[in-house]
Amino acid sequence: MLKFGDFENWVARPIKESGIIGGKTKTVYEIGPNATIPGDKPYTNAGGSPWATSNVLAKVMGITKTSNAVYPDDRAPGNRCARLSTQMEECKAAGMVNIDVMVAGSIFLGKMLEPVKNTKNPYSKMEMGVPFTKRPKALRYDYKLSIPAGAGRIYSSGFGAKKEMPGTDKAEVLVLLQRRWEDADGNIYAKRVGTGRELLGRSTNGWVNNHNLKINYGDITSTPGYKPFMGLIPEAKSYYARNSHGKMVPVREVGWDSPDATPTHLVLMMSSGSGEPYTGTPGMNFWVDNVGMVY
């Protein structure tokens, strides 16, 4: 089991939004030791938790706003899980701002950098991945998925009109093992050691327990079951990490590593959406529990 991967413990952050957008106090949740941290203070991972979420404190044009799409939920009495939801976040202030942003609930290993000040390049606000040198066979987790019947996808970044997109979104689970290194200029590069990535596009009849996502090692492009979304991450969509100078830089995946290579980092993300940022199927809910590695 990954630390806090049973989702029994959560940090609650009651934050009062700016009066100009209603001044309501909203609770933002994080995965970590049971605690309440009031006020609009930027959050850093508590209690040694490796988990971050897409839940954020934002301060845009002097306005304090929250976004929360990951929630603690009761799987059964005394047994909690995480619920990742796709929903529209609204921010309206007369004469100043009128923004609707489509948000997919996501959890990942790493850190979210707060406060968020704009909607540009969302990956640059997420420190993706944690140090890791093991070679697991699979990622194991329990899940439940609910997709509204007949629902489509909507793109809404907060700027410009909302766009209806073809098809229905899917939930996504991603586990990547990378061997990273840094050059003299502080650029970070990586080779892909291990890959597990799947899209889940059908509602389930209750919980699916002990589901295994196999991790395949080395270059998998010619293996049975390979799909293009399992390939190397394009440079334009690179995840970010902090270099030795403390600067956030893209992690550029430059090739496949040998099948017996030892990784330096683990990237793990679970999300109620699988498309581009700010795109999703409203009302989709993806519950996950008991996330761990199989050796």
Overview of this structure, please?
With 295 residues, this protein is mainly beta. It has strands spanning 10-16, 25-31, 35-36, 51-53, 56-60, 63-67, 70-76, 79-93, 97-104, 106-112, 126-128, 130-131, 138-146, 153-155, 163-165, 171-182, 188-200, 208-214, 216-217, 240-242, 248-256, 265-271, 279-280, 285-294. Strands 4, 10, 11, 12, 16, 17, 19, 20, 21 and 22 form a ten-stranded mixed beta sheet that branches. Strands 7, 8, 9, 13, 18 and 24 form a six-stranded antiparallel beta sheet that branches. A three-stranded mixed beta sheet has the order 2-1-3, with no helix packed on it. β1 (10-16) and β2 form a beta hairpin. The radius of gyration is 19 Å and the shape is globular. The model has no long low-confidence stretch (mean pLDDT 93).
How many helices in DSSP terms? 0
Q: How many structural domains are formed by the residues?
A: 1
Largest sheet, in brief, is: 10 strands, mixed
Q: Tell me, rounded to a whole number, the average pLDDT.
A: 93
- CATH top level? Mainly Beta
Order of helices and strands: EEEEEEEEEEEEEEEEEEEEEEEE
Summarize the structure.
By secondary structure, the protein is mostly beta strands. The protein has no helices and 24 strands.
Keywords:
295 residues; Jelly Rolls; 10-stranded mixed sheet; 51% strand; globular
Secondary structure elements and their pairing?
Blueprint lengths: L9 E7 L8 E7 L3 E2 L14 E3 L2 E5 L2 E5 L2 E7 L2 E15 L3 E8 L1 E7 L13 E3 L1 E2 L6 E9 L6 E3 L7 E3 L5 E12 L5 E13 L7 E7 L1 E2 L22 E3 L5 E9 L8 E7 L7 E2 L4 E10 L1
